[in-house]
Amino acid sequence: xxxxxxxxxxxxxxxxxxxxxxxxxxxxxxxxxxxxxxxxxxxxxxxxxxxxxxxxxxxxxxxxxxxxxxxxxxxxxxxxxxxxxxxxxxxxxxxxxxxxxxxxxxxxxxxxxxxxxxxxxxxxxxxxxxxxxxxxxxxxxxxxxxxxxxxxxxxxxxxxxxxxxxxxxxxxxxxxxxxxxxxxxxxxxxxxxxxxxxxxxxxxxxxxxxxxxxxxxxxxxxxxxxxxxxxxxxxxxxxxxxxxxxxxxxxxxxxxxxxxxxxxxxxxxxxxxxxxxxxxxxxxxxxxxxxxxxxxxxxxxxxxxxxxxxxxxxxxxxxxxxxxxxxxxxxxxxxxxxxxxxxxxxxxxxxxxxxxxxxxxxxxxxxxxxxxxxxxxxxxxxxxxxxxxxxxxxxxxxxxxxxxxxxxxxxxxxxxxxxxxxxxxxxxxxxxxxxxxxxxxxxxxxxxxxxxxxxxxxxxxxxxxxxxxxxxxxxxxxxxxxxxxxxxxxxxxxxxxxxxxxxxxxxx
Length: 508
Description:
This protein has 508 residues and is mainly beta. The protein has a domain at 425-507.
């Protein structure tokens, strides 16, 4: 066992070589070039537990090459806000490495090597590279615990093992985090609008969190954009930044909470994924592409623009049955794609009649639902299959709105004599559905008034053919002799057969 205490200055070039025993090495007020071996030289696996301290009472600067070698070593370095070049290799054993400081010109490299290592690099403003193992691709490494933070640029490699990596960026900080093998837990927080964060979790079942981010963020649940062999990941993201998220293979859970003008592009990839995105503001643009399995997608708008693909794009007929739910406000465009999809729009609640919600069911027997008390314009297209539409009675548009489609529900491809079904939730399944006719000289106002007047009581439904389409008017309880703003209007584009009333039902 040996104890060394060395004080140097900027002109010194000093090498400290310990013993095979438990050494204690301290370097103070350093400014030169230091090489420190915890054992008898680089690669001394027989070395035991060493304690190496740099800048304990006076912050250090200069150039440092530190080798802990064998044993469970404790290496601590406190650097001044000055230029530092440091390479620290923990070596074999379960090492604890802690480093702080340095300025924007500093370069710091830390490698835990083999063993269960704990590594912390904080308040770093320069270029920092951290390896849990011995390099970028050390699959044999064990589980490491790595923390980092500051305004620097961080490249962090967990390597093999079930690693825990946690980063807290200051303004201007950037991070590239690679989980490597194992079921890793990876988190990065904060930064500012200039920060760039990329997390590549690796092809196991990983947990990823990037929050408080205002810059550009890219998250891969696997090893890149198209890693079909990836396991089931849990990914959480949030902030006012721009997020590109790839779940990759596996049954992933992806949850995003946007703030301010945050934007998001989420790709579920293979597997049956559960994707939830909410928040943002009226400038936010969100796109969710779930992938061709049976996925669950839940999007909560805040006045922005939201596009959802149940499959892999607009025309993915091979997609399976998806459950897609939209909430609150914004312009929504939804593609169910293949499969028997459930598209729930019943919780959309807007007061702006200029808001447009468009949903395409695609192939399969799809089920749509639209809620009450919303001024949005809904355009629904079932696509192939026998589709079911549930519309809950609520305040609707007047005839001017009906003529433009504004504020009403329009179904573009309802087929008479098919398995298509329109259910209207009036609150009373005994409400009447009545077909009425009007003269060829009637106006749209005349036709809608006639449909409204067919009602005997609140909740009754009058159906009229006008201008090459059918209109169902649900009596809202106002003027029972004419259309008014309490009534709900549903347009069935291209339907000219009044027998359509056999496919319209009042439900409770």
